[in-house]
Amino acid sequence: NSPFDGRAEVAATTGLLDAPGGVYVLDSAGQLRWPFGVEASVLDTALGDVDADGQLELVIGEWGSFGDTIYLLGGDGSMWWKHQTDGSVEVVTIGDLDGDGRRKVIAGADDLYVLGSDGHLLWRYPTRGYVVDVAVGDLDDDDLRGVVAATAYPDSCISAFTAYGSLSWRHQMEASPTIVVTEDTDGDGGDEVLAGSLDGTVCLLDGEGRLLWQHRGEDPVSGLGLADVNADGVKEVAVAMGDHLSGGGVLVLDVGNGA
């Protein structure tokens, strides 16, 4: 029951639909350090120093008919705070949006939620579709970081928000998006937005939401990342395709044009 100590640890989430779930934290030898149980499934976690005290904390989100809560846990498994949402929590992440040194907790559920390090609600944006993924990035090279959210049917789109919750832009998708990633793909100091969707589409948007390129695959996009795959000094877009209902595979695309 000691705090996270910088050595390798594993946080495993559990739960199925409305069955009770939780998170189990294991040490590098596979021994249980501590469990934390909740009333429903846990789909996502985020690890980081939320309150700038030099220690790592763990954010978890509860998903299911009886679960709609965001939790912040200390490194010893104690609950620091919880925040009720109005829908099951699909995704959580952590990021310092306004440069004050304290990371905010960002969560996607029925709406987009941003919480302070003490758990109070900073802002909430009423999305018209369920939030399935979120990312944090500096879209306009102004030293403030915004939030990008992917929302599913009936409003399949990618939306960008300022650090303080104002909508910056929306990009409509033909099918429900599955993942969104922010990264500076062209070296201009501002992040671009990569997104993937259920119909196999991968697209790159600039910091103002304009479509730079689009590639249509055959299976749902389940993962996106940037890496120098062929060791030529330039990063490519690596795309994981497929889900439990379809085939799968990996695509590698040119970051400049999507080919």
From TrEMBL:
Location, primary (coarse class): membrane
Pfam families with a match to the protein in the record: Beta-prop_CGLA
Membrane topology field: Single-pass membrane protein
This protein's record includes keyword Nucleotidyltransferase: no
Subcellular location: Membrane
Domain Lambda-carrageenase beta-propeller, residue spans: 156-218
InterPro entries: Beta-prop_CGLA (IPR057420), FAM234 (IPR045232), Integrin_alpha_N (IPR028994), WD40/YVTN_repeat-like_dom_sf (IPR015943)
PANTHER family: PROTEIN DEFECTIVE IN EXINE FORMATION 1, PTHR21419
Name of the protein in its database record: Lambda-carrageenase beta-propeller domain-containing protein
